[in-house]
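Dear colleague,

Thank you for sharing your sequence with our group. We've completed the structure prediction you requested, and as agreed, I am returning the results in plain text so they can be pasted directly into your records. Please verify that the sequence below matches your submission; if there's any discrepancy, let me know and we will rerun it promptly.
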Amino acid sequence: MKRELILVIILGLGFTSCLRLDDQLFNNKKIAAYAFESYTGTRELADLNGQYLIPDSLIHPITFTSSSSDGEATIYGVYIGAIDRVSTDTVILYCHGNAHHMDMYWSRAKLLSKIVPNHRFGVLMFDYRGYGKSTGKPSEENLYADTDAALQWLASRGLQSERLIVYGYSLGSAPACEISLGKKILTPAKIILEAPFASSQVMINDASGLALPGSYFTNYKINNADKIRSINQPFMWLHGTKDDFLSIKTHGEVVFKNYKGTKGVAVRVDNAVHNNLPSVMGYTAYLEKLRMFIIGN
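Please find the predicted structure tokens below.
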């Protein structure tokens, strides 16, 4: 019944809108201010306990400018770590999912900053256009432009490619793959994708149960499963076996199978759904997997 209802909605959108599903990909929300630790709304990993708190001195709200064919936009972000050590630390660029804004993903970002206790790590998270306080409207082009602008912010503070790790979660897998192709000011040394989607075409197929041309329903041409073929740096893939939003079988497994680079690490987490993989896996085990992948010991 659920699939039939989705199909009716898709077909209706297909025949009534030139954009079809384009505006549905971004579930963005605007806010007046970020709350981070004190946020009381919907938050992923809401059970993260006090041992992962970040001192105020290591939380740095930032802004930078992103340019695309739509014009310039002001992008809001947060850097977790010693901002004066960007030029010497290992930095994780965290590309979040399609919902809401950075407050929702704050627990995920601060968890990543704890991969190695007392190790010199930084995490940069930012809101795409139209999310949170970032200006402009989200689109596929702008998604890539905003991520590129984040790279430029890091490069301007001395970060080199060999100390850059990109982590793409869900929607964030698209810009993570894009910047890993080696065409930007910085190229990540390693790429981590959690619950990635294979392509916009596969999303259409999964929702409808039919092999319908994606161009009927979206102008987007996102294809992570194809881009991963050209990514050679070490790659870690994480996916929950019970993910009912982006199926591990039709999305994640396809992306990982297509990877032909130097080192591929697959982490399949039994019983995890789309948004709870770190907690189902256990935070200690999750961080240990990431630590071994990033620094190797």
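Summary note from our side: Strands lie at 27-28, 59-68, 71-80, 90-95, 99-100, 121-126, 164-169, 190-194, 235-240, 264-269.

Kind regards,
the structure core
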